[in-house]
């Protein structure tokens, strides 16, 4: 099946088949596609006009398609390849709309695509962290990334990494934005582990290590066209987290309220 928002391919019947996040397509943005398809803009810091007025559906759709296309291109091709021309070709948006919607040009467009991808991936983390078993939650998060890699033919990377490693001096705010996203994820994971009885210091270290492990594994999987790196990382994190939970103060107790 072809997604008519970003023109990616996604498996027929995928809706509702994933127990953790229902209806993701192979480009990981199905939930956002759905909001666009039913005419509900996903919003964000530039979701309204200069004076705060709600944009018309036609203008909003064109703008949202460009942001979504930029996020998809970042994910597959990296920041340097995500040009205005490529976004226009991918989204089908009219060229004249670029500086109307994005007066800050390419840097603004990429920053909004980064924010969109960050919100979506943060939602995956938050959803995974709702379960009572922290080991099962982390296993599920790694498994989700593994599945997305396979479904996309190992094209699906992380848009945040793409921005972080390719940012140049012309747009230093993009590197800062990427760093803020990583910090946000680490804080979410650390808070989750603290709730399950680990110390704050250990939780911070493990949170940082888990993010580093999954991001590094995704890069290696794409290079090798194999799931072996992420499976190895997932297994090692699984064992590490089990030991950490067994060694925690008051081991055997449940999560903190």
TrEMBL record:
DNA-binding region, residue intervals: 83-102
Source species, domain of life: Bacteria
Residues of the HTH tetR-type domain: 60-120
GO molecular function: DNA binding
Keywords: DNA-binding, Transcription, Transcription regulation
Keyword Transcription regulation in record: yes
InterPro entries: Homeodomain-like_sf, HTH_TetR, Tet_transcr_reg_TetR-rel_C_sf, YxaF_TetR_C
Segments passing through the bilayer: none
Protein name, entry field: AcrR family transcriptional regulator
């Amino acid at each position: 099946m072809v997604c008519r928002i970003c023109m990616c391919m996604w498996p027929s019947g995928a809706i509702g088949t994933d127990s953790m996040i229902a209806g993701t397509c192979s480009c990981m943005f199905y939930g956002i596609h759905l909001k666009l398809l039913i005419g509900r803009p996903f919003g964000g810091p530039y979701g309204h006009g200069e004076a705060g007025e709600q944009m018309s559906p036609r203008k909003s759709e064109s703008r949202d398609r460009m942001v979504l296309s930029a996020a998809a291109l970042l994910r597959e091709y990296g920041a340097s390849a995500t040009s205005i021309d490529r976004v226009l070709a991918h989204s089908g948006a009219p060229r004249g709309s670029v500086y109307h919607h994005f007066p800050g040009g390419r840097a603004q467009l990429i920053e909004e695509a980064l924010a969109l991808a960050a919100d979506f991936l943060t939602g995956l983390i938050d959803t995974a962290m709702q379960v009572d078993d922290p080991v099962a939650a982390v296993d599920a998060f790694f498994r989700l990334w593994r599945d997305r890699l396979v479904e996309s033919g190992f094209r699906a990377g992380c848009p945040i990494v793409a921005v972080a490693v390719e940012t140049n001096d012309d747009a230093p705010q993009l590197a800062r934005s990427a760093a803020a996203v990583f910090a946000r994820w680490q804080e979410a994971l650390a808070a989750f582990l603290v709730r399950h009885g680990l110390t704050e210091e250990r939780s911070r270290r493990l949170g940082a290590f888990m993010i580093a492990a999954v991001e590094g594994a995704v890069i290696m999987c794409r290079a090798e066209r194999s799931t072996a790196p992420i499976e190895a990382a997932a297994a090692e994190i699984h064992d590490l987290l089990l030991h950490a939970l067994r060694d925690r103060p008051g081991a055997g107790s449940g999560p903190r309220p």
